[in-house]
Amino acid sequence: MKDNYKNINKKYKYIFGLIGKNISYSLSRDFFLKKFDKEYIKNSTYLIFDIKNIDEVNSIFNISNLLGCNVTIPYKISIINFLDEISIEANKIKSVNVIKIKNNYKIGYNTDIIGFQKSFENLINSYPYKKNNNLKALILGTGGVSNTISFVLKKLGIKYKYVSRKKKDNKILNYVDLNRDLIEKYKIIINCTPVGTYPNINSSPNLPYKYIYNHHILYDLVYNPYKTIFLKIGEEKGALVKNGLEMLHIQAEESWKIWNSNI
Length: 263
What we know:
Layout lengths: L5 H6 L2 E7 L7 H11 L5 E7 L6 H5 L4 E6 L13 E2 L1 H6 L4 E5 L2 E5 L2 H13 L11 E5 L3 H12 L3 E6 L7 E3 L5 H6 L2 E4 L25 E4 L8 H8 L3 E3 L2 H16 L3
Parallel strand pairs: 1-2, 1-3, 4-6, 7-8, 7-10, 8-9, 10-11, 11-12
Antiparallel strand pairs: 3-5, 5-6
């Protein structure tokens, strides 16, 4: 991989990118290239590093002009072993989505926290029933980003339960456990899995959707497609719905603040 980017090093002084797996759907590259153009940031590019396993990340870090990376599914936890340092918040949740590189020293951060919190609070503020409900949440998935979501919910005083296909302990629900009582009790449902992401746009989390109604809030971290089956069904049931696009933009801007000191 190092040889593949030899010419990139010659062409660009500042290189950034996204590390993940099966991430051709990502809008991150388009976001940053437009940002560079709009803000007259010259000699810069943003690449997609779609790798099959985390060990390939060492080749990425060998790119001499690489100043920073975003990290996405499924490497937000495993990437930590390849870093020299991580921020206090990233260490608390054991999840990194931003890396700053200077003199080959790699520091991990988490901007998903502020991205999700601001986006989610914008949604909650438009929820008409919050004064009459002790809101609780179901977090679908137990990956790195799920840790971020639970961290924010805890800050906001919202109780939550994880839902996973593989039930690891009594603290985690299995999808087969979800019944009418649970769906009515946990009115916030947050999808932290890649289910429904392009190109598999006809799939959705395995929920008993018939119990969802207008008092529910459905948040999907997926943003491509703009409206997943999960959100479409929720909207049809009268629920308040939102995708992860605003979160993406907020966390990307926060990433840039971290990297910008390198330029």
